[in-house]
Prior knowledge:
By secondary structure, the chain is mainly α. The chain has 21 helices and eight strands. It is globular, with a radius of gyration of 26 Å.
Amino acid sequence: MSRRKGGRSQSRFVHRPEDELVTAVEAATFLGVKRATLYTYVSRGLVRCVPEPGSKENRYVRADLERLKVRHDARAGHAAVASGALRWGEPVIDSSVSQVGAEGLAYRGHSAVALATSGRSLESVAELLWSGALPEEDPSWASEEPALPPSELARLLPRGTTPVAALSALVPLLAARDVGRFAAPPEQEKARARRLLRQLAGWVSVAQAPGRVARALRAPTVAESLVIAWDTKVKRAPELLNRALVLCADHELNVSTFTARVTASSGADLYACVSAAMAALSGPRHGGACDRVEALLAEVGKPERATAVVHERLRRGDAVPGFGHQLYPDGDPRSPPIMDAAREVKPEAQSVRVARAVLDAMRKAGHPEPTIDLGLVMLAEALGLPPGAAATLFAVGRMTGWVAHILEQREQGHLLRPRARYVAPDGSAADKVMARGKGP
Length: 440
């Protein structure tokens, strides 16, 4: 059905509450056209509009505008540009959570390195990322009790299960026990996120030492929970673990964070979003990078073998994990504060000395500076933490960023749904495939 108004044909439809509506000016600006062209799209049924109650103005359905823009951009040859942008390209999502720039990494305008080295707690940084305001004093989060008997989960896990794998198994169990997790208001979600973050920190050693879980959950901070769970005796461990957690808190649209946002855009609950992010984190090219650094240091074994191992890897064309970040051509600013901490607390540790020797060999060979992964492994070794602890620090710290992006994505309200550009098995472009299929 349509009706005439002011010489224009306008489509009529039943307005659904979930349809996001914009003004004519906003719609025309979004499409990059004049208002007259917008009205033409309406008359052709390409964009739906509804009258604004109490005025003579109309509102336009944003989903129709987005669909029309995608079609127009594809015809204009933008599909290839968009495809390339997904490979370390320009950001495709507006976000106020964090920024990577020439000055380094910032969380909502606050230097991540400054927050970490000044001793601000992970809890403070979490509140900053989730609300936009940095608390004047470090907040105190409530302690937790085990959500289920740790021995039950420990029986299901092989003793050699890594901490990240154990946490990946834990999150769905916590979800199943939380019947109010669906479509929760933001403040309830923040409270749920605080509880979940505390639970993750307390359960990191469940596969090896389930008896520590309850004590770890009663610790006053996330960092101190990790100290108890891993039973490290180093006096400065809470301070240094907190520094690493803060530096891991967020890093704009990395793989796991983008996964969390895509999942959040579907309307999934917080646990599902975090589970999806942890699945992405498990890949060797993301969170698994720490495990590959651990393997490298084990291969080197002694500081005096570092140069030979590095040169042999480079000769074979193999990667040396823990070096070179595409966003930081001059070096990852998160690495030095963590590596400095490792050298301060236990410079004589064998793995710390091996890591320093590998770093020296890479620098002499003219290769890029280290990433945060090398720093996390060095710190874990200096504190005497178990294998897999570096990747776990990354996961626990990064959960604060996942939550911030989940909340932001829900506020933005749109579904993240890229289009696919079909390519035939022989590599032919879609238009050529279609042309071959046409008869005379």
